[in-house]
Amino acid sequence: MEAISKNFFLYLSNNKVLDRLAKRFGTRFGADKIVGGETFSQAIPLIKQLNHDGLQVTVDHLGEFVDSEAESRKRSQECIETIQAIAHHQLNSEISLKLTSLGLDLNKELVMENMERISQEAERHDITVTIDMEDSSRCGETLEIYKALKEKYHNLGTVIQAYLYRSNEDVDELHAYDPYLRLVKGAYKESGKVAFADKPEVDANLKRLIKKNLLNGHYTAIASHDDAIINFTKELVKEHGISTDQFEFQMLYGMRNQTQYDLLKEGYKVRVYMPYGDDWYGYFMRRLAERPANIAFAIKGIFSK
Ligand SMILES: Cc1cc2nc3c(=O)[nH]c(=O)nc-3n(C[C@H](O)[C@H](O)[C@H](O)COP(=O)(O)OP(=O)(O)OC[C@H]3O[C@@H](n4cnc5c(N)ncnc54)[C@H](O)[C@@H]3O)c2cc1C
Question: Whole-angstrom distance between the N-terminal and C-terminal Cα of the chain?
């Protein structure tokens, strides 16, 4: 049943007609519970409230692939303006972005040019930029770009996915770059040739990666809603005397809100990943696919309007 509903929502996530309809009706039918708004301005009061409560934020302008150089430059300009708005409004927020939105599939020089501009602006305002990790076919190139930029810019993070076989080696290689790594299980549909298919293997690998990156002395974001992973981290840092300044928990906006506040109360740093933008439809459907229980609040959203 779970597999059927997962495939159903993944199928819907690619439906262009529903995507167009979604853009027309906006996020009010439930998506506003997990998306910060259709514009960054709409997200600002929400970020202020989260900051006021003690939660830190990373914002992500939704939208992945671009078809032209002009579009990729427009995307990078939007990132720059978001960084400027974060600084202007004195928000406690970083930004997350996807390299495909900056032209990764078009040409590598273009991405580097866009990332240079974004990184310079981020450095000027002391705001961290995290490069999200996309599907495995883009992992190698994404890490090469990260390493090249990390030689020049300090405030840069990226993501390692525990489901990939290569991730242990990647964390070893990144050691020399003093990386800021967000460690996740991985969200894309991958083949058994490159990724663990079994959930227990993914979970065990995520624990190994968390331990390795923390013991290597690097700043680590543990991005998971899974109590087993969160409790593992708590035990590990206690055992090794790792300071709360060296790591943070990250969760998606609207997911496990109570847990976010509980962790804060226990003295941990918690960051909320808040997507925004009018391209919210695919993101919303992928979250429904990931956890059918999320459908409950979507339905509640529809009937409460
Ligand atoms: C901040 C952040 C950034 C991310 N960035 C990336 C990225 O760049 N690239 C990428 O591939 N993936 C990314 N992901 C997604 C990630 O890879 C996983 O697909 C996603 O987080 C689901 O895995 P999980 O560890 O949260 O728990 P799961 O393995 O989905 O769930 C494990 C258990 O956790 C509990 N649980 C999970 N969700 C909930 C919930 N909403 N409410 C209550 N209990 C719950 C349940 O008990 C569940 O059985 C990101 C995730 C987060 C949180």
Answer: 29
- Does any ligand 1 atom lie closer than 6 A to the CB of residue 133? yes
Count other C-beta atoms under 10 Å from residue 142's C-beta: 20
Per-residue pLDDT of the chain (305 residues; tens, 9 = 90+): 566 666 777 676 766 666 666 666 666 666 788 899 989 999 999 999 999 999 999 999 987 678 899 999 999 999 999 999 999 999 999 999 999 999 999 999 999 999 999 999 999 999 999 999 999 999 999 999 999 999 999 999 999 999 999 999 999 999 999 999 999 999 888 999 999 999 999 999 999 999 999 999 999 999 999 999 999 999 999 999 999 999 999 999 999 999 999 999 999 999 999 999 888 877 887 787 777 676 565 555 444 43
State if residue 97 touches ligand 1 by the CB under 6 angstroms criterion. no
- Whether the CB of 48 sits within 6 Å of ligand 1: no
Q: Is the pTM of this model over 0.90?
A: yes
Place of tokens 């009061």: 45
- Using CA atoms of 34, 35, 41, 44 in order, give the dihedral in degrees to the nearest 10: 30
CA of residue 224 to ligand 1 center, whole Å: 5
How many whole angstroms from 163 Cα to the centroid of ligand 1?
Answer: 12
Looking from the CA of residue 221, the nearest atom of ligand 1 is: 1
CB 276 within 8 A of CB 40: yes
For 154, residues 6+ apart whose C-beta sits below 8 A from its C-beta are 123
Percent helix / strand / coil, the chain, rounded to 5: 55, 15, 30
